[in-house]
């Protein structure tokens, strides 16, 4: 019996690793596709961090460049998704940004790939969204498609879908532990041993593959943390509460803007929505160019203290509006990175103010930015383990663990202000039975199906 059970576990781990590798390859290709689209539109790989418009790539457009880019991108992905995916933005947002095509039908993987292509065009053309969401969707779709082809039991299908999601996030951020936590805490909502084995196997494999192809450099640099005293812990808690509220408000604002877009565009051609709305988004980008695209260089600049407090507030509020507009006009992309962006700008601004009030106590404003990123993510997702682990892996500075955990407590508390558990997953996997198998069914699972 033990040998049979071992074979089942080995099969699960092997299948999850294969799904994780596929998700990593998709993530690498997706990042390359975004890079190509961004270069085509801007002539720069990381446009936005300079806070100015390019003058040498499309010189004949002048200031109209930032208005034209979202319109041109929308003219491609708008008809593409309207004809092949047939979803309006309101439906996608209600189902949640991380809702996936599970692959339990033949078209599932294809739909996820079309969405990823649309997201690459959207982000490259200035869409103020993240790249993690589409990769999570593709990874989960790969897991579901693999499970369907292998004809495994529904419990195993659920695990492989979660494994694909874990692999997608791990490859996107090069954060295997965060990927596994994401699958367990948000997708599956369980700590069962089978779920842990599948998620971690996929996440480790995905991180290894993406690291081999893209390198394993940290996304953000570590910040020197002073020796913490009682006052510091209080400041961390205040930062967690304030930026956690930012995450809650950001989530609510996204849904409000998308619902408003649905009402304004009611009974009109869905394929034209990104084209018309792209001009509105472009006007916002013209006013605040750093909001263009994913915004990783802008986050790094904010954490490094290159923006004044006023500019940090403008970027924070602007990102909220730009992400809502991108989704409201029918754009595709994730909201994981925009949430980190909002938390970083809010945390850095708060850190700057605290440093002025308490110059000998507060420490560097940059570590308040990192705390803000984690707390805002908690406020939006109500997933404290994922948020804390993600920031630790993004910086590689595990001295941050205690400040992040202290801030996580009030962030979780304020996240309860939302009625729904998580805007990211919503009804994900609702039709697939739980991966936690009753004891009476263990013998069936041990059969390998």
Name given to the CATH architecture of the largest domain: Orthogonal Bundle
Helices and strands, in order, run as: HHHHHHHHHHHHHHHHH
Global mean pLDDT:
81
User: What's the β-strand tally?
Assistant: 0
- Radius of gyration, in Å, reads 21 Å
CATH H-level superfamily title of the largest domain: Clc chloride channel
Helix content: 55-70%
Largest sheet: none
Number of domains: 2
CATH topology of the largest domain: Clc chloride channel
Q: Which CATH class of the largest domain?
A: Mainly Alpha
Separation of the first and last Cα atoms: 15 Å
Oligomeric state of this protein: single chain
Overall morphology: globular
Global structural class: mainly alpha
**Percent in strands:** under 5%
Q: How many H/I helices?
A: 17
Uncertain parts: 90-104, 423-449
């Amino acid at each position: 019996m033990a040998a049979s059970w071992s074979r089942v576990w080995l099969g699960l781990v092997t299948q999850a690793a294969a799904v994780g590798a596929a998700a990593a390859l998709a993530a690498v290709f997706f990042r390359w596709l975004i890079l190509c689209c961004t270069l085509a539109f801007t002539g720069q790989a990381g446009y936005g961090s300079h806070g100015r418009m390019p003058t040498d790539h499309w010189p004949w457009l002048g200031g109209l460049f930032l208005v034209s880019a979202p319109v041109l991108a929308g003219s491609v992905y708008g008809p593409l998704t309207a004809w092949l995916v047939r979803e309006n933005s309101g439906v996608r947002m209600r189902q949640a940004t991380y809702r996936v095509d599970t692959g339990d039908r033949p078209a599932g993987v294809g739909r996820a790939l079309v969405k990823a292509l649309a997201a690459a065009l959207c982000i490259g053309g200035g869409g103020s969204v993240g790249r993690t969401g589409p990769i999570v969707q593709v990874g989960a779709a790969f897991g579901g498609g693999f499970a369907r082809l292998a004809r495994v039991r529904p419990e195993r299908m659920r695990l492989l879908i979660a494994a694909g999601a874990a692999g997608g996030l791990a490859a996107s951020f090069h954060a295997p532990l965060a990927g596994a936590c994401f699958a367990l805490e948000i997708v599956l909502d369980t700590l069962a041993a089978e779920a842990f084995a599948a998620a971690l196997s996929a996440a480790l494999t995905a991180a290894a593959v993406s690291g081999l192809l893209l390198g394993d450099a940290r996304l953000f640099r570590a910040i020197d943390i002073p020796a913490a005293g009682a006052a510091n812990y209080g400041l961390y808690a205040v930062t967690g509460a304030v930026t956690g509220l930012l995450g809650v408000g950001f989530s609510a604002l996204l849904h409000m803007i998308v619902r408003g877009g649905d009402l304004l565009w009611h009974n009109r051609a869905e394929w034209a929505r990104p084209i018309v709305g792209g001009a509105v988004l472009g006007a916002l980008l013209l006013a605040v160019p750093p909001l263009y695209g994913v915004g990783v260089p802008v986050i790094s600049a904010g954490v490094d203290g290159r923006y004044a407090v006023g500019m940090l507030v403008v970027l924070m509020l602007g990102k909220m509006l730009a992400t809502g507009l991108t989704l409201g006009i029918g754009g595709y992309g994730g909201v994981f990175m925009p949430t980190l962006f909002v938390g970083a700008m809010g945390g850095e601004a708060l850190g700057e103010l605290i440093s002025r009030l308490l110059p000998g106590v507060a420490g560097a404003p940059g570590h308040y930015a990192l705390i803000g990123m984690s707390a805002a993510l908690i406020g939006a997702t109500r997933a404290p383990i994922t948020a804390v682990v993600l920031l630790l892996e993004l910086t590689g500075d595990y001295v941050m663990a205690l400040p992040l955990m202290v801030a996580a407590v009030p962030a979780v508390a304020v996240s309860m202000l939302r009625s729904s558990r998580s805007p990211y997953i919503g009804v994900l996997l609702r039709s697939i039975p739980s991966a936690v198998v009753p004891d009476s069914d263990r013998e069936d699972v041990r059969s390998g199906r």
